[in-house]
Design goal:
heterodimer, A: about 80 residues, mainly beta, Ubiquitin-like (UB roll), 1 helix, 5 strands, B: about 575 residues, alpha+beta, Aldehyde Ferredoxin Oxidoreductase,  A, domain 1, Aldehyde Ferredoxin Oxidoreductase Protein, subunit A, domain 2, six-stranded mixed β-sheet, 17 strands, globular, binds iron/sulfur cluster
Amino acid sequence: MPVEVRVFCGLESCIPGARSGEPMWVDIKAGESGRALLARLNIPEEKAFSFLVNGVRRDLTVGLADGDRVAVFPAVGGG
Amino acid sequence: MDKILRVNMSTGKTTTEPVPAPYAALGGRGLTSQVLLDEVPPDCEPLGPFNKLILAPGLLSGTSAPSSGRMSAGAKSPLTGGIKESNAGGIASQKIANLGYKAIIIEGKPAAGEQYLLKLTPGGVELLPAGDLAGKGGYETVALLKQRYGEKVGVVFVGPAGEMLMAGAGIGNNDPEGHAGRYAGRGGLGAVMGSKGLKAIVIDAPRTFDVPVKDKERFKTAAKKFADILHAHPVTGQALPAYGTNVLMNIINEAGTLPTRNFRRGRFDQANDVGGEKLAEACTARGGKATHACHPGCVMRCSNIFILPDGRSLGSLEYETAWGFGPNLEIADLDVIGELNYVCNDAGLDTIEAGCTLGVLMEAGVIPFGDGKAAVEALKEVGKGTPLGRIIGAGATFAGKVYGVTRIPSVKGQGIPAYDPRSCRGNGVTYATTPMGADHTAGYAVTANILKVGGDVCPITDEGQIELSRNLQIATAAVDATGLCLFVAFAVLDNPEGLPMIIEMLNAMYGLSLTADDVMALGRHILHTEKEFNTGAGFAKADDRLPEFFYNEELEPHQTRFALRDELDQVINF
Ligand code: SF4
């Protein structure tokens, strides 16, 4: 089952070939959790400060569905 | 900072006064707003002789307190018709403070067409004729005045937009390298300065960090601890220095609240092309800087130096500007955005207002969405003072009326910044209710709404937004009085040691014994002062609402509408 993943602000260095902010399709098991997805991508949990699924912030226990848009950020801010 | 400089532009007389006792514990926005309420009739004509322009460094400016060199500019706004404080980085604040001035009050009005330059040195004050600078752009003005008065001077200036009294004009000052790019941009204060016939203020101060503090050792210890707190927080210690404010582009886009195509949608497909990561790359690749301090002593260094393709150095490109000229106009090219920013800095125009205005012109079909070339051409008209240029310079609300646009993103006449209020509702509450008109900094609820800093409040429901905005507005008013950059809030909201350390610096500097309650009381007092001014200027509850289309049109991708109305009257209810 594919999900559309974007990682940002240095997290791309965890994934060979990944580029900040560019979408990647990742094949996961149906209902797989956010935590399992991070493990799959070798992103340490403590670096994944904001985990968004379809534009809504979720904790890592969230179960993912087919075609979900996932975005992972370290802590960021500005104004 | 024991004196106030008063400059009467009607008579050309300058006087230095001792600080009246009730002003002793005020600085920055606290002082500009108080002087306005005390001295300016709220119903006056903003560009007339009875309005006053007040520049005030914050309470901690000009000391070694980290990131404390912010300056407040205040006046009755020609854009909103209400009270205004606009806050700038750059090097002027520390210099004004180190010459001992707690505030500069510019009042009166000279004969039409006269232009002056105010020169401040340790030796005193001079008001000089400056007809030779008339019509000059920001970059040239700063370069000429540095040449004339020394490489290190601070220059506070207006561009042609301010001289021509355009309601979207800002007041600029230079960064340490001399870029004319640090603006007290919002609310048309450049037009107020222009109406006073004041083209520029040159500040020649040999010192930067030496404003006297009462208890030096105690102050030093507190300042050091505060710097450590800023270094330790991931936002102020890592993200801001690495990517600058434009790091927000992607997260606001992912959260679905990035205003796109004049607030039609909450996502822009090419957001990443104009975001902070790409910007940092571009800054470095062209020999600019991806991290930079807008004034000496800033430890967060969110600023940058962006070089345009032909080699001109813009200075800093910030998130709000990247959004206003980027997704808001469906322009996905950082070089075009940089060019639009350069034109604004040179004409002396607020980039947020200019972005909103171009969005409205595109909505009207005057220029097509996504057409960067047409946008640059149109914006260049501002400096020339052509009819189209004057319409653009007058701001989004006016431009919308001229072209019959009903989707005008503004509150109290001021353009809405880079977070759609429908899916970042805490900011919607702030836009509607701050006395400043739509202003994201006045109560930056993006923190708890999107960034998970200082709490966690779901951005697409109404729950908790009123309280969130209220608390942030109070705290922000207080921070704006200190001269600290508002971005310290990211660390202060999360670290219980943060606020006590700010208070410790204030107490050590002024020999006071302030508590956290006193600081919050100061924030509330400032908001009361501003509300009172606005009531006198004729503002009522109906002015504390968002434009109709935010209530009626759904925003993708969350299909949200703004719904809060009467509840908004409870925000400043203390
Ligand atoms: S954090 Fe940025 S805006 Fe704030 S004082 Fe530092 S460089 Fe200037």
